Amino acid sequence: MNSQSFFNQIKGKRVAFAGIGVSNQPLVAQFLKHGASVIACDKNENGKNDALAIELSEMGASVKFGADYLDNLDVDIIFRTPGMMFTEPKLLEYIKKGVAVTSEMEVFFDLCPAKLIAVTGSDGKTTTTTLISLFLKEEGKRVFLGGNIGKALLPEVETMTENDFAVVELSSFQLMSMRKSPDISVVTNLAPNHLDKHTDMDEYIDAKKNIFMHQNAFSRTVLNPDNVTTNGFSSFVRGDLYYFSRHHEVNYGAYMKDDKLYFSDKKGNTVFICEKGDIKLPGNHNIENYLAAITAVWDFISVKSIVRVAKTFGGVEHRMELVREINGVKYYNDSIATSPTRVINGTLSYYDQKIIIIAGGSDKDIPFDEMGDVICKKVKTLILTGATASKIEKAVKASLSYKENNPVIINVSSMEEAVATAKSAAVPGDIVSLCPACASFDMYKNFEARGIHYKEIIAKL
User: What is the per-residue pLDDT across 247-283, written as a single tens digit (0 to 9) for each?
Assistant: First the structure.
């Protein structure tokens, strides 16, 4: 089905958008334009006074707020927000009644005429997705970037052509109900994550596999052989399988050897791309992100475009972002580090010296044991806040590498107190980094809001 046929069918339908966010605003406008009756609903009791809610009302949508936002919806279609599981009991009840429950990304996949590239994984997916889009743009391609990276693409589907590229980041929640896969799929890595929402690790892994399980023989799958779980996906791939590795050569795909990046194609050619030192973005985990992105779009870009991006791209906001240097102390924002593996392979792998970190947040039922060992070796002062503070402290003190006050552990109750504590502990030459290892939902709407608040506090020091 093309977009014109779909929106012709929408006319006169009653459509609910469950979860009001900035990305839903253009969706509401699009469906209203095509003659749908729209209700925007959200569990936030106080949301009715938000500027966005007022704007949606002025556009012609009905709005509903509060704990009962999913109750008694008289609609034909419900679009769930990206963070909502399709197994939500109330949504299942609507499905039994004949209501179509879907998501923006599911419909977009059905209607998208452009070449579709999707990225998932536990860590690195936002940077990898961004790099893919930058490579293609540098090559002169028309690119639409969205998905879990923060922008709805369905409102733009009517302007896309088969010569364009749609590059999307997908979470496990989005993938769980997917029954269509992209032309090119990338899985960066997998480690325990979101276990507070998923039944178990197997469900989380199966959700991620959905990114390529519906591909055909003419598609491409890019996997990480250095990650046990993603390497195990190889036998399920139906299309063209490529790998990327920072640690060893691969037969087909991008890899690093002797601090140089190469690509091996299926014709037996090996092409030198660039030196590791050419990549402006710091951290070994970002080398892996580059290798994954290169492998995904090798057929559509030149080495020249890759090198230009490598030398100029400084990173995505909230990802090892240098905020400010004060009195010889550098403050970094790594709010995107919402899992232990992200902290271990990111911030804690990059600096040679012991650093000061601010960690903690909401609990996703992820173990911190491995991170405890690394913190003992790489951190001089550990400042803990949020719901997981005690769990992280316990993991650190249980490490065989832990010694009294090595690291120093300080518990605080707010971001302001955390930054003030870090400032008091730091001396010239020190590194202070926010790298929570946890989601933000105990104190903030999302990791972006947490990072912005942290940066605002730093700016006032």
Answer: 999 999 999 999 999 999 999 999 999 999 999 888 8
Tokens of 99: 């209501």
**Residues 397, 345 share a domain:** yes
Structure-token pair, residue 20: 């009001």
How far apart are the C-alpha atoms of 231 and 224, rounded to whole Å? Answer: 6
Residues constituting the chain: 461
| β strands within 163-239, DSSP E | 165-169, 184-187, 220-223
- Output the 3-class SS for 232-257: CCHHHCCCEEEEEECCCCCCCEEEEE
To the nearest 10°, report the CA torsion of 337, 343, 349, 353. 100
Task: Give the pair of three-digit tokens for residue 367.
Answer: 């173990």
- Return the closest-CA partner of residue 27 out of 51, 75, 4, 59: 59
* Positive or negative torsion for Cα 214, 217, 218, 223: positive
**Do you find a cis peptide bond into 407, omega within 30 degrees of 0?**
yes
Contact of 178 with 109, CB cutoff 8 Å: yes
**Angle, in degrees to the nearest 10, between helices 125-138 and 284-297:** 50
| pLDDT tens for each residue of 61-101 | 999 988 899 999 999 999 998 878 888 899 999 999 999 99
Among candidate residues 312, 342, 365, the one where a domain is terminated: 312
Torsion of CA 44, 45, 51, 55, to 10 degrees: 90
Cβ atoms of residues 332 and 320 within 8 Å: yes
Domain shared by 141 and 170, yes or no: yes
**Predicted confidence band of residue 187 (pLDDT cuts 50, 70, 90):** very high
Say if residue 296 is in the same domain as residue 326. Answer: no
Count of beta carbons in the 10 Å neighbourhood of residue 353 = 9
Residue 124 corresponds to which tokens in the numbers above?
């690195």
pTM of this structure:
0.77
In whole angstroms, give the CA distance from residue 107 to residue 94.
18
The two three-digit tokens of residue 257, written as one number: 């050897």
- Amino acid identity of 197? K
**Residue with tokens 């999707």, as numbered in its chain:** 118
Could you count the other beta carbons within 10 Å of the beta carbon of residue 215? 21
Which domain covers residue 377, as residue numbers? Answer: 321-459
